[in-house]
């Protein structure tokens, strides 16, 4: 049976809502992917008694425990002391940890203060986990349970995961059996209506089904079990994909905007690209966020620099309400490429490949003009008609437009 894990986050800044517990998210995803089942998240303030109480309870009921936060150099950072008390160990000074801190501060040109020495004490039987991304090293205990204590900043915790923890867990649990997970993103259907139909279709299978609404999408998450009949499941999933084909935007965490930018990076490497956005900046924001937060996971540094240098985002003036929509409407089916581009030209300083997005109360036009002569456009309609759902309609059009562009790039 897969080991169970709890994640204990320490910090008053978390319990008062000053910051989010981001460590719980990336740790849970990483552990689940590895095959370790996360069964509990807890957050406690900088209170010695509450921290010790949580350690006692979680340590008794879990094989693996992650503790985040409270490893800094200030008076409210006493995680290491409470963990040592819980493990019934004295804490001892580590000269190598101090040498690392001295070197780091010297390289960064930061004045070193003696209170940083508090970060050099560890439970005497612990294994120090060197943190090259910050001053606070983590540490590992094997008793009372396998416990990893890591710094609070997520980038530092991720560094320790990549440099030590992942391999350490694999060596301690060589027979992990990660669950097979399948997910779909649906676009243009409500969560309750979708769940009603999917539950009927897949209800007879011995699988876990979960739903998550993240407008404009609804995610369906399916977790398979080792004893499942894969042939039966694959047959049912094929039926699901066929029945809902027009509504399925992506599968298994594929991101529409990431696919779009990757295709631009790989396939249009010699051309500039302009995005003319008439969605109050919704499309531009989506692309910028994807560009900086996700794209580097999928393309090389060279491709990233290339798309960054060639991508121009413009917003049409507010007063231009429906010109593009009229040019491409059914009432004007013979609008030529030149006619549309002549309308766009005042808004562009260059003559690149152009991707255009436009939305208003009537609908949306996605338009693609490529220098190789391809020119396509499509007027999209929304399933959301209430004024109260205007924001959701805009989000829907943004994603639907990128799906259209992906099909034509």
Structure description:
Helices cover 40% and strands 23% of the residues. The protein contains 14 helices and 17 strands. Helix 9 (256-267) packs across helix 11. The longest helix has 19 residues, at 154-172. It is of the alpha/beta class and 409 residues long. The chain has helices spanning 12-15, 22-34, 48-61, 79-86, 95-108, 154-172, 191-202, 230-243, 256-267, 282-293, 301-310, 323-327, 337-344, 390-408; strands at 4-10, 37-44, 64-68, 91-93, 121-123, 127-129, 138-141, 146-150, 181-187, 208-214, 217-223, 248-251, 273-278, 311-315, 353-359, 364-369, 375-380. It has a six-stranded mixed β-sheet with strand order 2-1-3-8-7-6, sandwiched between helices. A five-stranded mixed β-sheet has the order 14-13-15-16-17. A four-stranded antiparallel β-sheet has the order 10-11-9-12. It has three domains: 4-172, MoaB/Mog-like domain (Molybdenum Cofactor Biosythetic Enzyme, Chain A, 3-Layer(aba) Sandwich), CATH 3.40.980; 181-251, Alpha-Beta Plaits, CATH 3.30.70; 256-408, Maf protein.
> How many structural domains are formed by the residues?
3
The CATH class label of the largest domain is Alpha Beta
Alpha plus pi helix count: 14
Tell me, rounded to a whole number, the average pLDDT. Answer: 87
Report the end-to-end length measured between terminal Cα atoms: 46 Å
Derived from helix and strand composition plus strand pairing, the structural class reads: alpha/beta
Corresponding CATH superfamily of the largest domain:
MoaB/Mog-like domain
As residue ranges, the low-confidence spans are none
CATH architecture of the largest domain: 3-Layer(aba) Sandwich
Q: What's the overall geometry? A: globular
At CATH level 3, the topology of the largest domain is Molybdenum Cofactor Biosythetic Enzyme, Chain A
Number of beta strands: 17
What fraction, in percent, of the residue positions are helical? 40-55%
Bin the strand percentage: 15-25%
The major β-sheet equals:
6 strands, mixed
The strand line-up of the biggest sheet is: 2-1-3-8-7-6
Radius of gyration (CA) equals 27 Å
């Amino acid at each position: 049976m897969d080991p169970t894990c709890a994640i204990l986050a320490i910090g008053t800044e978390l319990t008062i809502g000053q910051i989010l517990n981001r460590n719980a998210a990336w740790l849970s995803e990483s552990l689940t992917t590895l095959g370790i089942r996360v069964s509990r998240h807890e957050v406690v303030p900088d209170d010695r008694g509450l921290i010790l109480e949580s350690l006692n309870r979680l340590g008794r009921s879990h094989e693996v425990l992650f503790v985040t936060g409270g490893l800094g150099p200030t008076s409210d950072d006493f995680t290491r002391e409470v963990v040592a008390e819980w493990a019934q160990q004295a804490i001892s000074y580590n000269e190598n940890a101090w040498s690392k801190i001295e070197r780091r501060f010297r390289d960064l040109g930061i004045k070193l203060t003696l209170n940083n020495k508090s970060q050099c004490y560890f439970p005497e039987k612990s294994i120090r986990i060197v943190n090259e991304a910050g001053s606070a090293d983590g540490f590992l205990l094997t008793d009372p349970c396998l416990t990893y204590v890591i710094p609070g900043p997520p980038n530092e915790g991720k560094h320790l995961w990549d440099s030590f923890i992942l391999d350490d867990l694999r060596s301690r649990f060589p027979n992990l059996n990660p669950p097979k997970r399948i997910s779909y993103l649906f676009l243009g259907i409500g969560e309750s209506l979708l769940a009603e139909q999917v539950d009927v279709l897949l209800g007879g299978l011995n699988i876990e089904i979960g739903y998550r609404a993240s407008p404009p999408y609804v995610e369906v998450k399916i977790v398979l079990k080792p004893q499942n009949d894969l042939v039966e499941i694959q047959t049912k999933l094929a039926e699901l994909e066929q029945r809902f084909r027009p509504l399925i935007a992506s599968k298994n965490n594929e991101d529409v905007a990431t696919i779009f930018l990757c295709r631009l990076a790989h396939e249009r490497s010699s051309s500039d690209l302009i995005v003319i956005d008439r969605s109050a900046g919704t499309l531009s924001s989506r692309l910028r966020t994807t560009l900086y937060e996700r794209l580097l996971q999928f393309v090389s540094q060279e491709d990233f620099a290339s798309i960054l240098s060639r991508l121009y985002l413009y917003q049409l003036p507010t007063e231009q309400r429906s010109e593009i929509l009229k040019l491409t409407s059914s009432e004007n089916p013979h609008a030529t490429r030149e006619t549309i581009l002549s309308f766009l030209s005042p808004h562009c300083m260059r003559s690149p490949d152009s991707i255009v997005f436009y939305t208003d109360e009537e609908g949306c036009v996605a338009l693609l003009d490529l220098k190789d002569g391809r020119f396509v456009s499509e007027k999209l309609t929304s399933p959301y008609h209430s004024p109260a759902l205007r924001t959701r309609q805009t989000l829907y059009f943004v994603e639907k437009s990128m799906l259209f562009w992906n099909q034509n790039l």
